[in-house]
Design brief:
The protein contains 9 helices and 8 strands. The chain is an alpha+beta fold. The protein folds into 2 domains: 69 residues, Winged helix-like DNA-binding domain superfamily/Winged helix DNA-binding domain (Arc Repressor Mutant, subunit A); 174 residues, GAF domain (Beta-Lactamase, 2-Layer Sandwich). Strands 5-4-3-8-7-6 form a 6-stranded antiparallel β-sheet, sandwiched between helices. It has a two-stranded antiparallel ribbon with strand order 1-2. Helix 5 packs antiparallel against helix 9 and helix 6 packs across helix 8. The longest helix has 23 residues.
Amino acid sequence: MAEIRSVVHALTVVDQVMAAGGVRVREVAADLGIAPSSAHRLLSTLASRDYVVQDPHSRVYRPGARLLGLTGGTVGTREIRHAAHRPMEIVAAATGESISLSVLVRAEVEFVDGIESGHILRASPRIGARLPAYSTAGGRVLLAALDPEDVSGMFGGRLKKLTDRTVDTVPELAGMLARIRQAGYAVSRGESTEGISAVAVPIRLADGRAVAGLAVVAPTDRLPDTGLSVVIEHLLRAARDTAAALTRTTGHGNGHGDEEQHD
């Protein structure tokens, strides 16, 4: 009976979140007739599975990626991978470098697809790996699409440095994201992996939401600042083609365009 009651409580919270757009711990506790500590554990469990996400400032729990995906509010990773793969192949052929596709999972990026360069010395995408979003180009274009206050709430104090080049303060990250927002793309140089650089653009739905990052990743000496504009054009075209494919297959779409083994 306890297991059934827990399932009923979880489904009730899901219904509340979708109906109201967001709930607080004390509201859940009152509605279910349980202790606030039990309500907090229930919401934390749902958050750990991405069914809800907590606003870092208001502390309100809102629908998460999985819940939105079940209700048609966003597209899933499988659909994004399917739509992006052919455009990624085209960018890989045009640049001769590795390509990676990443999605935001809370404060991290997860690499969900990639194409490896044919060079002997190359950056190899590690599908399934996760890294702090602030340390990668693909992660930064996704963070830049969020409300700046929400981003600040994701990270407390100093940021963990993966290399000597990794951004390590929230104010520095905020300034970087503001520049990315203006430019429409992000560049990282040896910030998650020594000697590896990346340039990335977001893939956006018709309503402007960035659902993934698309990146060209290479040893730093093969991705110099001169010539980046050509690489960015290839990425932007691939992002638009991906969004168009998403529109055809899911009814979502329209956008721009991570990253790699990683940077």
